[in-house]
């Protein structure tokens, strides 16, 4: 009788998938960059359009960038998590989550991302 563990290659175990020993460097994002090579800056309006489209939020109007995140219509913690994923995907690197959490508005988050380059 053959057990499932008898069929595994010698470098694996039933608890650990073969790729488990390979780890990404801590600074690498798990998301491929979407921006064109060399594109390092995004206008505030482009940022708001991207965020609004991806998160399904209406971010139109002149003052929406400075509205407190908690005061944005339909904003909740899930939107914040989705925003972090979006920013990592767009930039191709990890974002400073602690600073994102401290930001009060989308304008502040845009400024943080621009500082990060």
Model description:
This protein is an all-alpha fold. The protein has a domain at 40-117: ACP-like (Non-ribosomal Peptide Synthetase Peptidyl Carrier Protein, Chain A), CATH 1.10.1200. It is built from four helices and no strands. The model is unreliable at 20-39 (pLDDT under 50).
In short:
This protein is 38% helix and 0% strand.
List strands and helices in order, with pairings.
Blueprint (H helix, E strand, L loop, with lengths): L43 H12 L21 H15 L5 H6 L3 H11 L1
Instruction: Determine the fraction of residues in helical runs and give it as a percent range.
Output: 25-40%
Kindly report the name of the CATH homologous superfamily of the domain at 40-117: ACP-like
The CATH architecture of the domain at 40-117 can be named as Orthogonal Bundle
CATH class of the domain at 40-117: Mainly Alpha
Rg result:
20 Å
The chain-level mean pLDDT equals 78
Taken in chain order, the helices and strands follow as: HHHH
CATH topology of the domain at 40-117: Non-ribosomal Peptide Synthetase Peptidyl Carrier Protein, Chain A
Number of helices, counting only DSSP H or I runs of 4 residues or more: 4
Assign the structural class, choosing from mainly alpha, mainly beta, alpha/beta, alpha+beta, or little secondary structure: mainly alpha
Give the overall silhouette: globular
Stretches where pLDDT is under 50 for at least 5 consecutive residues are: 20-39
Taking the sheet with the most strands, its summary is: none
Amino-to-carboxy terminus distance: 59 Å
What portion of residues belong to β-strands? under 5%
Secondary structure tally: strands: 0
């Amino acid at each position: 009788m053959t057990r499932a563990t008898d069929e595994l290659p010698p470098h694996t175990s039933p608890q650990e998938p073969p790729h488990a020993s390979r780890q990404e460097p801590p600074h690498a994002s798990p998301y491929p960059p979407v921006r064109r090579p060399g594109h390092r800056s995004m206008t505030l309006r482009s940022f708001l359009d991207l965020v609004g489209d991806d998160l399904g939020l209406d971010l139109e109007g002149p003052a929406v960038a400075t509205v407190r995140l908690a005061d944005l219509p339909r904003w909740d913690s899930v939107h914040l998590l989705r925003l972090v994923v979006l920013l990592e995907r767009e930039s191709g690197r990890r974002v400073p989550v602690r600073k994102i959490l401290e930001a009060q508005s989308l304008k502040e988050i845009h400024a943080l991302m621009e500082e990060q380059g």
